[in-house]
Amino acid sequence: MSGTVEIAGVSKCYGDSTVVRDISFGLGAAETVALVGHNGAGKTTLIKLMLGLIRPTKGLVRVLGENPATGDFAVRQRLGYLPESVSFNMALTGRETLRFYARLKQVDGAATGDLFERVGLAQEAVDRPVRTYSKGMRQRLGLAQALLGMPRILLLDEPTSGLDPALRRNFYELITELRAKGTTVLLSSHALTELEGRADRVIIVNKGVKIADGTLEQLRRIARLPTRISLKLSQAGATPAWLNGGMKWCRGPDGAVDAEVSSDRKIALLHDITSDAALLSGLTITEPTLDDLYAHFLNGGVTK
Ligand SMILES: Nc1ncnc2c1ncn2[C@@H]1O[C@H](COP(=O)(O)OP(=O)(O)OP(=O)(O)O)[C@@H](O)[C@H]1O
Question: Which residues pair with 228 in a beta bridge?
Answer without folding.
Answer: 260, 286
